[in-house]
Design a protein that fits this description.
There is one protein chain. This protein has 261 residues and is of the alpha+beta class. The protein has a domain of 173 residues. Strand 1 and strand 2 form a beta hairpin. The longest helix is centred in the last third of the chain and has 32 residues.
Length: 261
Amino acid sequence: MLKLPVGNLLPHHLPAYAHASIESHSMPAEVLHCPSCGAAAPTDAVRCSYCGAGLAAVACPSCFGLMFAGAKFCSHCGAAVSRTESGGSHQLCPRCQIDMKTVTVGSSTFRECSHCAGLWLDPETLRRICSEQEKQAAVLGLSPPAGDAPNQSIPIRYIPCPVCQKLMNRVNFAHASNVIVDVCKLHGTWFDKDELRRTVEFIRAGGLEKARARHLAEIEEKRRKLASERTAVTTMLLSDDSFPARRSESMLDILRILLDK
């Protein structure tokens, strides 16, 4: 094995394979460390793969983004952390089947799974968040998000509502966001890891308003087509000289059926 001399060697003094060796042993740029055991962890990790300690949780009251343990400000929007926990909720995570925690982020209270970072929001909480984010959208005037594809790392399967245990419907939020959520109309909506933040980003960019306008346009187009079809049928019948006679025959057929009964 070749031993490299030590001293004041500059990078261009090293052979090509030495550069490759150094690069292969360098640490990735975006690496954080577990506050419990010090092990390296990627920025999107929820739990430490070595000691199992929690690394990140939803703590941003503005965009509901995940924040790494010990962080004071959200890396997505810069808002200050605001999170309190109030113990178990006696509701099981629909994916992991473990007890979820009740957490309050800002003024919103919901259930959170500490294992997969999924969130369970009741209908009223979700309506309030959507309303508040739409108000911000009118002020911020952000450009539409890129529209990330649905998370392919999560297996596609129907999961039960934590309240009634019935299988929930998979729905593309607002039919245009590319965020596939699981909905129980009576009890709430399940957001997998980071999906609530993506939903908020969609709303802030005016996504809900545009989806609503598109839906109204589709309804109006259906009405127009239906009116056009009715007009065409009426015109055809009026232009048919035998229409009165055929209508009389139809009425006689109905009377015969009634008399037979």
